[in-house]
Amino acid sequence: MNTKTMEGIVGANTNMNLLNTPMRVYKEARRRGDTGAMERAMGYAGECAERAEEYKAEAEKGMEEDAREAREKAREEFEKAIQKRREERKAGEARVTGEERKAGETRQTGEEWNAGETRVTGDGEKPEECNGENSPEGKREPVTYTRTGTAIPAGQSASISISI
What is the enclosing helix (H) or strand (E) of 60? Predict the structure, then answer.
């Protein structure tokens, strides 16, 4: 909270409390019929009310400054968040485009793998030839899956002949 805001609130509260004393004097003077005391009491009450209004205006100015500072702080945090997102996006794009890829590392699609292409690792060694028969899983027989999910070995293709 801004010092102007605090000073304004405390000053306005104090002057409103001080206003009670001249008002009490005014009421007593009215009961007695003393118009001179009533006028003096109302003068003091007016002064206290004016000072309370001045402090109220000061508190409002302080609150406006607080709000402005809060908006500026929020704007700075928002800009920092945007900058952070941009940096994260650039880092992500760098990973996708391969700028951070190790020297000599290549990537292959499934078609290249099955076509017998050589896989090269980041250290430049050729660990194995990879194709359908020498794949890490080994040689497998083709299967067909039923509706229930069970695997049935695929039969040999039957030749169909039609005689007329």
Answer: helix 35-97
Residues in the chain: 164
Q: How far apart are CA 59 and CA 4, in angstroms?
A: 6
In this prediction, residue 17 has a pLDDT band, given cuts at 50, 70 and 90, of confident
Q: Which residues contact 138 (CB under 8 A, 6 or more apart)?
A: none
- Separate counts of helices (H) and strands (E) for the chain: 3, 4
The residues pairing with 152 across neighbouring beta strands, listed in sequence order, are 144
Using an 8 Å Cβ cutoff, are 26 and 35 in contact? no
118 three-class SS:
strand
Q: Are 127 and 105 in contact (CB under 8 A)?
A: no
Integer Cα distance of 81 and 68 in angstroms: 20
Question: Which residue has better confidence, 155 or 159?
Answer: 155
Rg (CA), the chain: 44
- Using one digit for the tens of pLDDT, what is the confidence trace for 71-98? 999 999 999 999 999 999 888 887 777 6
Q: Which amino acid does the sequence have at 4?
A: K
